[in-house]
Amino acid sequence: QIFMPLNFLGFVYREIRGSLANIDKLFDLLAQTPAISDDENAIELKCANPALRFNDVHFAYTENRPILKGLSFDVPPGAKVAVVGESGAGKSTLMKLLFRFYETNKGKITIDGKDITSLTQQSLRGHIGIVPQDTVLFNTTLLENIRYGNPDATDDDINSVLKLAHLQAFVESLPEKLDTTVGERGLKLSGGEKQRVAIARALLKGAPIMIFDEATSSLDSTSEQAILSALCDAAKGHTSLVIAHRLSTIVDADKILVLKNGTIVEEGTHTSLLERQGEYATLWQTQQRDSEDKVNERTT
Ligand code: ATP
């Protein structure tokens, strides 16, 4: 009679001790001073259709290893600009600088003509919707995972982003629809579905700037086509920056920047860059050959 209650008490004690250790870690984290803080006179960014500008931006994570060496480009209001380049060229770094996770070493980044260092970080980040390479999905329902982008969103808002992210048919095919749980880190979803959930979540935030940091994982052609349509619809009405790995997703971009060794070595539209027969054309031909090889492998 006494064994079971004592065993249970032991279990409760171990649970409480584990939770206290986690709470300690949480307080340690909260006590840390952020590396970047708002300027005393920081202003609130308020802009519905902003332009972005990188002006002679230099950046290094560590001394003597420059990643960006004087980068300058514009994203006009409502335009879609894509950045391509080999792995490690610094594409995701651009996005982190725009979000002000790090400060530039030289040069400046402006939104709507305002230096991002003069803005409150909250208003800066409130203006940017981001679709990261590795989306963090919580082990809860699809609805909760999407609503994370804006907890106050209405059902109409949710339906509208499901449509833009090309998720409607997928959700309809699930017995529990939006109440389906996605599993630990979204394990029950395919790579392409996860990315479209990330697009829906980012769109729900309603920010005027959208950044898509495309995942590197290879997708089958149906998933790729679904992402392509989702990216295309999601970018409409936003000032967008697309960090692209699959060039097929950015053929419609207003401008493509080719990043190499920390600088922009080529820029133009997909057609003009192909005509130029330079770095972009080589990247394009390599990717076309790779996807043809994959199709051949599947059919033989
Ligand atoms: P990929 O196409 O593989 O995603 P990328 O072009 O996005 O690559 P970045 O992630 O911007 O490349 O990284 C640029 C360089 O900076 C890489 O050499 C990387 O190792 C380095 N780097 C990235 N993050 C850090 C960091 N936190 N500390 C130090 N170096 C870093």
Automatic annotation (TrEMBL):
Annotated signal peptide? none
Q: Which residues form the ABC transporter domain?
A: 52-286
Where is it localised? Cell membrane
- Highest taxon, organism lineage: Bacteria
Name the UniProt record assigns to this protein: ABC transporter
* Organism this protein belongs to: Alteromonas mediterranea (strain DSM 17117 / CIP 110805 / LMG 28347 / Deep ecotype)
What are the top taxonomic ranks of the organism? Bacteria, Pseudomonadati, Pseudomonadota, Gammaproteobacteria, Alteromonadales
- Which part of the complete protein is shown? 303 to 602 of 602
